[in-house]
Automatic annotation (TrEMBL):
This is Hemerythrin HHE cation binding domain-containing protein. It comes from the Bacteria. The lineage of its organism: Bacteria, Bacillati, Actinomycetota, Actinomycetes, Propionibacteriales. InterPro entries: Hemerythrin-like. Residues 14-127 form the Hemerythrin-like domain. Pfam families: Hemerythrin. It comes from Auraticoccus monumenti.
Amino acid sequence: MTTYEIPRPTSGDVVDVILDDHRLFETLLRELRSSASDREAARAALSEVLIAHGEAEEEKVYQQLRRKHAIGEEEAEHGEEEHAEGNEALLQLLECTGTDTQKFDDAVENLATLLNHHIGEEEQTILNPAREEVSEEVRAKLGADWLARRNELLEQGCGSVEQVRVIVERAHQEGVLPADEEE
Ligand SMILES: [Fe+2]
Ligand SMILES: [Fe+2]
């Protein structure tokens, strides 16, 4: 059994510490593709850090950058939509019983596609404006605030299948994701 350590720094420039997590996502996705890894452990670690990362971004970074006019409402809302789509794909992955099935591989691929798109776009449309429009001091403050919330969520264990299901349901109810279809 492998344990995937999720680093929990408490300070840093918000751009740098967010980028560190984006790299961790890429590493964990690679682990999830490899038949040599402990895929259960990699899946659990990715779920925890992905949920903590995204929720904390919405609460502690997007709104604050909007208030400072670094990004517009559009960028923030688009980011939140992509988080919701990613969480939905994560839920599908968490709901796979086996880790050595085609269903699991497909769920990993689908999550990787959405996540790679999101982190690319976030780096270009949210982190670049943060670099250019806000001071170093503000970036340090946002970094500390974002990390505090992220680490608190990690401490609580925010990535269980039950909790991800609740987050996805809430996104449907709030209209961030399309209304659930009748089955
Ligand atoms: Fe991010
Ligand atoms: Fe994000």
